[in-house]
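Posting this for the archive.
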Amino acid sequence: MTTTRPEFIDRLRDIPLYPAASTYEFGGELVKLASNETPWSPHPAVLEAIRAALPTLNRYPDPSNSVLRRRISERYGFPLGGVATGNGSCEILLAAAEAMLEPGAEIVYAWPSFSMYPHLAAMTGARAVTVPLDLHARHDLEAMAREVTVATRIVLLCSPNNPTATAMAVDEIDAFVSSLPGHVLVILDEAYVEFQTLQDPDVSLALLERHRNLVILRTFSKVYGLCGLRVGYALGPEDFRLAVDRVRQPFSVNALAQAAAAEAILHQDEVASRVERTVAERLWMGEELRARGLATSASEANFAWVELGQIDEEPLVDALARQGVIVRAGAALGDPGHLRVTYGTRSENERFLSALDGALGAKSGS
């Protein structure tokens, strides 16, 4: 009988577990404000496209994602050869790391930022160089530029940044990319860009014409409401697409996801409507939180980054969960003493505020 066990490579110990939102036992309907999902179902035409694709599930999906990639190309007026798709933007990030990182290489990113970024160095043996955000919870681009060396292969920018919701002006990004050597690939992660009002969400696309070492990453998970189907995409040089396609598994975007995303991108009027409703809740929630003495960063996304000050984070999150409201604790996202709260519908947001009042009242009365 074999008594030994398979040994996994040592670097697996360095790969963090992705901090997924917890699900709590609750005797009623949960208000899920922890994962930056949109509270609205996909557009009816998207649901119909999914239903129409169901009879074909005995066949493999289109490996080239041809219809979806063509729709993305047409939406942005961007060359088809430079459109990459993936099983969420996470897959494209992981594939980029696999294609470009190795022991001795470096990857630079701000912190706290998207929880997937630490995986990229850990899984490849590269060195992660993290740069603290500035006092306004924004990327410190000057400090990041100082960390770039001959060993740097990838620099990650997240705008709007997850979890702090802050965004960078396109001129700042342009100047930053211009300051870097050409061997450095800059990935601009714009998962939440549709929600920002700092500038037109598509203004950053002009940067792709000026910088051959830039890739823009976007997703159908957030504003389009397709979290459950996982579709992300990248716009950049064709050699980037070819590289990520080479290292990832085939058929990574399933048939239903392709059908849904290809239909969803046709309905920009629905995107505008969702953004308008989200921004209204963002403004209202900001006022309500300030009235309770809670500061937030300057949100340009569909969530708030709430500073708790002297309030203990863990007991507050637990108290909200006992009332059926799920939010994300800052400790799990790299910065204790905060809450990340997704903007839901008005009724969901009111329920969060009511639960918050109850939790803070119980604390002050204890």
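The longest strand covers residues 152-158. The chain has a mean pLDDT of 93.
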